[in-house]
Design a protein that fits this description.
By secondary structure, the chain is of the alpha+beta class. The chain has three helices and ten strands; from the N terminus they run H-E-E-E-E-H-E-E-H-E-E-E-E. Strands 2-3-4-1-7-10-9-8-6-5 form a ten-stranded antiparallel sheet. Strand 3 and strand 4 form a beta hairpin. Helix 1 crosses helix 3. The longest helix is centred in the C-terminal third of the chain and has 16 residues.
Length: about 230
């Protein structure tokens, strides 16, 4: 069951949090240390789901999240994403970028767990464009939990902002991430994100989590799907 507090759009789960939940049950190897998750359906909230973990003995096996006969999400271990990660920015630069993040009035899903300003206990990641750069976004994050769903959620919404949300309304389609080192609970971190180009209705983005002194802890790549209306 995905508790209702972990929503993205009001009636479905936050794509990053759900992807991290599925990824946390997906075996990885030295050759495939990252996990790629595909969201097949909007993740339903507050109802029983079945999670089928991947087989550690089979590197090609997939972890599957099911809603009855329907596949909600599937995941498989993959190599580290090949795209370059832009250099980190300081906490001070990230805080300045947050001043240019979208407001609750501008947000199509203002109660989103990852970035909604009106979620009562969400992450409230307010990614904004970094001054003096082209296409780089940043936000600060002080984690309360270092579990994979929280880290994936922190990497998720910032990628959407860099991909063009909310000017283009979109939802997460696939996300590939690797956690190198879990973040430290209670310490301020920096999340950066950047566009990786467009392909029709698909918007591609990258994101990364750093310590305050610039050490890379996790990275992700996402494919977002442009939609015509909220789901």
């Amino acid at each position: 069951m995905i508790p209702g507090r972990y929503n993205g759009p009001p009636s479905s789960g936050n794509g990053g949090w759900v992807s991290g939940l599925v990824a946390g049950h997906t075996p990885v190897t030295d050759d495939a240390p990252a996990v790629s998750v595909r969201l097949h359906l909007p993740p339903p909230l507050d109802r029983p789901l079945v999670l089928e973990p991947g087989d550690p003995a089979d590197p090609d096996s997939r972890t599957v999240l099911r809603d009855g006969a329907d596949v909600v999400a599937s995941a498989v271990a993959v190599p580290t994403p090949a795209g370059a990660v832009p250099p980190p920015v300081t906490v001070e630069v990230a805080r300045d970028a947050e001043t240019r993040g979208i407001t609750a009035a501008e947000h199509p899903f203002p109660t989103c767990y990852g970035c909604g300003p009106l979620h009562p206990d969400g992450l409230r990641l307010r990614s904004g464009p970094v001054a003096g750069t082209t296409g780089l976004y940043a936000a600060t994050w002080t984690p309360r939990d270092a579990a994979p769903p929280e880290v994936w959620a922190a990497l998720d919404c910032p990628g959407g902002k860099a991909a063009g949300f909310p000017t283009t309304l979109m939802v997460l389609g696939t996300m590939t991430a690797q956690i190198l080192t879990p973040p430290v609970v209670g310490r301020e971190h920096v999340v950066t994100s950047w566009s990786r180009g467009d392909d029709g209705r698909k918007r591609h983005a990258g994101s990364a989590l750093f310590t305050a002194d610039g050490r890379l802890l996790a990275r992700a790549e996402q494919t977002w799907i442009a939609i015509d209306r909220p789901v």
